[in-house]
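I am still learning, so would you mind making up any protein sequence you like and the tokens describing how it folds?
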Amino acid sequence: MNCIIIEDQLPAQRILKKYIEDLGSLNLVGTFTDALEAMQILNSEEIDLIFLDIHLPKLSGIDFLKTLTNPPQVILTTAFQDYALESYDLNVVDYLLKPFSFQRFIKAISKVKKTGDTTKAKSELEQGDSFNEVYIKSGYDHIRVKTGDIIYIVSDSDYTEIHLKDKKLLSSESLRYWEEYLSKEKFMRIHKSYIINTCKIVKVSSNQVFLEDNKAAPIGRAFKNSFTERFMK
């Protein structure tokens, strides 16, 4: 899919370029600092998707979007949430509030209607909690992990630990984020600090869940009823 970036802030441009490069399924055709510069390429190239900042010089992203009679799909990017309602009236794909994570970026891309042969893209970019893979930000890298390899996730102060069979990864995303993002069919929060992969349960004893590879997680009092109803019928 061909895409362009219309963004006047260089740091935001660099982040979008890196995310597009890391994702690998988008072809970045051009980057522009104002909407008027982008008009020529929209008239000469087939563009499928625009990453459009709202606050731009000369012409705002919203006003620019209103001038297009048959616009490509649009993902708005902004540091302000005041325009969210108006943007959805314009049928944008998604509204990214800066600063946004790579994971949130992927979620937005997953809503884009694919063109051409999309079998591979669809398998990699199922929306939200249906992902078979996630990208975990570690330092400056984004590490791809199969969700089926996650045994459990535990919160630890300002970050979360993603526990796999042979290692753990640190993520800056909150436990609430992972609870909303991961498949609710496979993952369950059983404690204020723990989310487990229910496919990895080996046994349940008293107030503990024992998982594969000798991992164990406590069942919190507030979560015990929902866990019991689901697994102890």
In short: Helices lie at 10-23, 35-44, 61-67, 84-89, 102-109, 119-124, 175-181, 224-231.
